[in-house]
Amino acid sequence: MDLQEKRTPIIKFDKVSFQYDSQAEKNLIDINFDVYAGETILIVGPSGSGKSTIARCINGQIPNTHPGQLDGFVSVNGKEVQTSSIFDLSLEVGTVLQDTDGQFVGLTVAEDIAFALENDGVEQEKMQTIVENWSETLEIDDLLQSMPNKLSGGQKQRVSISGILVNNAPILLFDEPLANLDPASGADTMRLINQLSKKHNYTTIIVEHRLEEALLADIDRILVIDEGKLVFNSSPTELLKSTVLQEVGVREPLYLTAMKYAGIDINKYNHVNTFSQINLLSEDIKLIEEWASQVTHEEDFNEKDTILRVDHFNFSYNSETNVQTLSDIKFSVNEGEMISIVGTNGAGKSTLAKAISGFVKPSSGKIIVNNEEIRDLSIKEIADTVGFIMQNPNNMISKTMLYDEVALGLINRGWKESDIEEKVFDTLKICGLYPYRNWPISALSYGQKRRVTIASILVLDPKILILDEPTAGQDYAHYTDMMQFLNQLNLERDMTILMITHDMHLMQEYTDRTLVFDTGKLLADTNPSELFSNTHLLKAAHLTETSLYQLGKLLPSMTSEDFIGRFMRYERGMR
Fold first, then answer.
1. 56, 436, 507, 571: which could form a disulfide with 62 (CB 3.0–4.6 Å)?
2. Does domain 1-85+205-251 sit in CATH 3.40.50.300?
3. β-bridge pairing 11-20 and 326-334
4. pTM score, two decimals?
5. What kind of fold does domain 336-361+376-553 have according to CATH?
6. pLDDT per residue over 166-187, tens digit each?
7. DSSP 3-state of 328
8. Which stretches within 96-204 are classed as H helix?
């Protein structure tokens, strides 16, 4: 980037404030920053801090489709946002949404990538060449005739990126690109973004919760937003060495947490953006091992009754074929266990959850809940014991108002109105939703909608709770609140909790047991520390080596598995 380029910002925010018409408070307050051509900028902050509002100002959704009072000056590649249409700004900014499914318009991948070109009246032969070139660059050329909604999360992300690259917009805007991706796909996506940005000199803006993974995109600068204000604007290393992340409630990379637990001063290292950059000194490796060796573990020898047994379970969505979605699944769960269920998309995890909840019946084999086989029970009868919370909250929500949604199950069970209100209010307080009790659900964020669906199940007091990706789209503060709440349910009510997840932090911190699925089979019934030390299982589950595992490999007299286990136990003790 030459000096002349750097003097002229490609994006400029000058004393920008914004308040949505539907809200009483400002969402942005006196925001000032510049972005220069070729920079890769990461915007982080807790939910509701104003990150997405900044993104909407950049791509023209504000003020064009989100009415409100926009003060100050915003320009994008020389165009003043306040006086530009969304179409004008779409020529400058290509946006990849958090929900990739909501961005697809074509019946095939090729059609979807070509959509913008068709709208611009590009000649057919030229259009095909452009689509083929970008699909090859993003390694999805073998998927051009596939239906977008049949792809994996990582593949969908690449199709969405291809669809904006064909426009040749100089600015790429990614709104939480990791939200619905497993760790392996997430890491691939961040490396891809870095590759594209550097090779084609894009100006790249990334809005993201998952800081450690986002840093794989070789970030130049990080903006931290908190309560509508810009509280930090500098390099990743400066941020990681400061206390800003702790102050605003954004999680720092776990290798830094481990170093701090061991009493290491990270300021003596020049670069700490990624674990590979640090090059730990031998004396600091010794400090980490000494710290970890002091973490003890008390075994819980309390025998508990079995509450769930899956016995040689088989299931196929197509009875006319021999292809099994789930094949000979066998495991049991004791009361009060917290278990993570992992595996790639299509491995059978969600189908298993549906089977335990009674939504699908086995081809053969049994599922026994509370000593009763559920094959002949109704979904309502099973729901008295098993609560299933789906990944997409929109698939569960049926009411307009938040209170009505959470109260619905109690109404269907014939509760008195006065008792319903007390129970619903208690549940909303526990889930952090009480301030929104009179809100329409449409006014809530995606993460808040997820908590509404959890509240609507928890209000019924199930003995077994199954959650599909409970932390997807949640910032660290809400993630911690929700997981501590689930942990409290587990400890105080002895509730059995099964969580389908790709969240490696969740597995490490909150579960002692992990079921690993691949292509409809149960590959392993193990613990998280063993899983993260087994490269074969990691690959099968589409996970990646964590920075804790990489740190553990440096310890001369302790295995990575042992180190991860000790770190997890210490973290739980800190809670």
1. 56
2. yes
3. unpaired
4. 0.83
5. Rossmann fold (3.40.50)
6. 888 999 999 888 877 778 888 8
7. strand
8. 109-119, 124-137, 153-165, 183-200
